[in-house]
Amino acid sequence: MKRIMIDDSKCDGCKNCSAACMQAHREPAGSIYDLDMSDPKNETRNHILADGKGGYRPIFCRHCTLPECAMSCMSGALNKEKDTGLVRYDEKKCGACFMCVMNCPYGVLKPDTLTRTKVIKCDFCLEADSEPSCVKNCPKKAIWVQEVQA
Amino acid sequence: MNNCFGCNTCKSADKPLEAFIASLPLETSHHRVESQRTKCGFGLQGVCCRLCSNGPCRITPDAPRGICGANADTIVTRNFLRAVAAGSGCYIHVVENTALNLKNTARAKGPIKGEKALERLCQLFDISGSSLYEKAEKAADAVISDLYKPEYVQMELVEKLAYKPRFEKWKELGILPGGAKSEVFRGVVKCSTNLNSDPVDMLVDCLRLGISTGLYGLVLTNLLNDVLLGEPELRFAPVGLRVINPDYINIMITGHQHSMFTDLQERLIQPEAVAKAKAVGAKGFKLVGCTCVGQDLQLRGSHYTEIFDGHAGNNYTSEAILATGAIDAVLSEFNCTLPGIEPICEELKIKQICLDSVAKKANAELMEFPFTERAHQGELIIDKIVEAYAARRGALNLDFSQANAEWKPLIDALMGAYKSIHKDVPLNLLPDHGNDNTLTGVSEVSLKAFLGGKWKPLIDLIAAGEIKGLAGVVGCSNLTAGGHDVLSVELTKELIAKDILVLTAGCSSGGIENCGLMTPEAAQMAGPKLRAVCEKLGIPPVLNFGPCLAIGRLEIVASEMAEELGVDLPQLPLVLSAAQWLEEQALADGAYGLALGLPLHLGLPPFITGSKVAVKVLTEDMKQLTGGQLIINSDAKESAELLEKIILEKRSALNI
Ligand code: SF4
Ligand code: SF4
Ligand code: SF4
Ligand code: SF4
């Protein structure tokens, strides 16, 4: 399966990955020029944290081999797909209990800002393109996709 | 240098050029497009602020304000005003130098080539004088004194230069500019940290800057240059890399200040200079046009046939021109002199000389040209260029066949040793590139003369629907809107196919002409009606007004036509497109277009889309203010349709 790998020493904190993620998941679709950067509906699924020492910690969903989020999800909204190895989220099944948010060891998951009725979760941009938009748009190549054991 | 050749190069509308660049053993801008493909989304939208050390701040849903509290509207319009002010400053610098050159020439009783142009200026400015020189000096002074006025004193020539209904409109809106240099100052101050935060107020300032840029930087620079350097005359001329003649010492010129070359142009054809060239094995000197100053020289080329070989290409063709190996020196004086030419010049031993310190290139020797020093500096420059030629292409080609047999072995040995040390820079010419019959020399004066001294024939053709309308395709060339000149050329093709006559100015002209659209044969690509008009008159469907400065000439054409029709500019079936705008200067030009009340198409947004207010004001509200309107679209077909629709609307409002 594929995983987004991270070299935090290369990250400049430019957040281009976040803008790319917002752009990939916005509705309706459009160009990067008309993405509303201040609309909370356009949330990013990744986070760039400052490490306080001048460096950055890019936080991306690991699509874990043993995903705590999926294992803690009672409603079956989160599942690790057999064939792709991706941890997928089904909004329709979600009960908004946020057990997954509590259990993700990396703190990537969060309830959506506006309604707090769903979870904002990396989907590897499966619908959008072959390659996750964040990876495509990182100018520093701090993140990349690599084949790993599921 | 960065060895990236072998990387993908970007597309060009000019296919022979694209293939040439892809085959070069040198890296050009066309190679670097790929490695710069990832763009910052915040930057593209203009919502990245670096005005203070709290920053950079960016607007996101979690952070809708910068640390200081500036929101997207404030950040975007501050950035935009900065760009427009800088762009305006560039053009004002050009007109200032041009006026100073005219003044100095007049004082020194130097050559004044355009007497008729001077008469026209004097009439416009209400100037009288007993001699040519007195009048020229007074005209120059009138411009200079306006430029130096404070911001709270309105410039005097604005009313004389502007089309009356426009002047009234500007007065009503309160956007008549004060001294042009002071306006730049005010713009820069206004957008500094924690000063203005009112997006509309800053956008209004852009309009004021647009007016001063347009009337002084554009219109007047042309008129002053016409006085100094001679007026444009219609003629057919060769364009493209074919213009480079390797038998000569070739000097590529780049920049925007044609008047800086006045003295040198004459000096290079004097027998003493030619003798220097001959001494190193060349036939003489030739200037090879590149960027807008090349366009300007081409426009006046009929006065300079001896020294000027032709216009080779626009800003993003300059690296290819150098890569032919036949250019011995680059004389630059302003922008559009790409930093990317520096490593190429180094590699090919091309001498770079810069004539204006504001545009000093890292590799170049700065040789400023104070008027009183012109003779001395000119000779020095010529010597340096000859030296460069000898070092690059000066392998001795002497005939020793008559030499004494006794000396022959020694001569052969010496020549052998010399040749093993000295290697000429290899030539890699593209002699078939471009074409031989591009129509040039189009100006508001020469075009009107061609039409029989009045605009009526053109107006009649428009009224009768033989020509649907006019489109100015102006401004720069960039490498991103589809590739080098791709959008400009495709849009132009679409427009002429819709029977819209295209007028061009700027680097877009350089691309469009190299693609053959300014030859009479291009009439075949026009719609049936426009084609018939072109074939009857023997003209191409795209008329080249030359450098970006000549956007000012287009405006004169438009104003004179509007006057004859008794309407205001926004009523004309006329649209503008800076499809591949590149620089801050283009944004200042664009602000002028909006102040004139014209619809202005851009292929790429000018980093404003992060602000809803800026977008609304520029694309919608402007229609109520000045009559102008910004249209952003990067698709040639769609853009042409949008522009055609506007032309049709304006036609029906005029009942034609
Ligand atoms: S959300 Fe967290 S636990 Fe779930 S797959 Fe992603 S990184 Fe692993
Ligand atoms: S919030 Fe939704 S996805 Fe997360 S654990 Fe609860 S039900 Fe499952
Ligand atoms: S795009 Fe790359 S460099 Fe920029 S913040 Fe994201 S991971 Fe870091
Ligand atoms: S001026 Fe304001 S928005 Fe700009 S960098 Fe400083 S704090 Fe941030």
Question: What do you see in this structure?
Answer:
The complex is a heterodimer of chains A (150) and B (656). Chain A has 150 residues and is an alpha+beta fold. Chain A folds into 2 domains: 88 residues, Alpha-Beta Plaits (2-Layer Sandwich), CATH 3.30.70.20; 58 residues, Alpha-Beta Plaits (2-Layer Sandwich). Chain A contains 4 helices and 8 strands. Chain A has a two-stranded antiparallel ribbon with strand order 1-8. A two-stranded antiparallel sheet of chain A has the order 2-3. In chain A, strands 4-5 form a two-stranded antiparallel sheet. In chain A, a hairpin with a 5-residue loop joins strand 2 and strand 3. Chain B has 3 domains: 158 residues, Substrate Binding Domain Of Dnak, Chain:A, Domain 2; 180 residues, Rossmann fold (3-Layer(aba) Sandwich); 219 residues, Rossmann fold (3-Layer(aba) Sandwich). Helices cover 48% and strands 11% of the residues of chain B. Chain B contains 26 helices and 16 strands. A 6-stranded parallel sheet of chain B has the order 6-5-4-7-8-9, sandwiched between helices. Chain B has a 6-stranded parallel sheet with strand order 13-12-11-14-15-16, with helices on both faces. In chain B, helix 24 links the parallel strand 14 and strand 15. The mean pLDDT of chain B is 95. Bound molecules: iron/sulfur cluster (4 copies). One iron/sulfur cluster binds next to helix 1 and strand 3 of chain A.
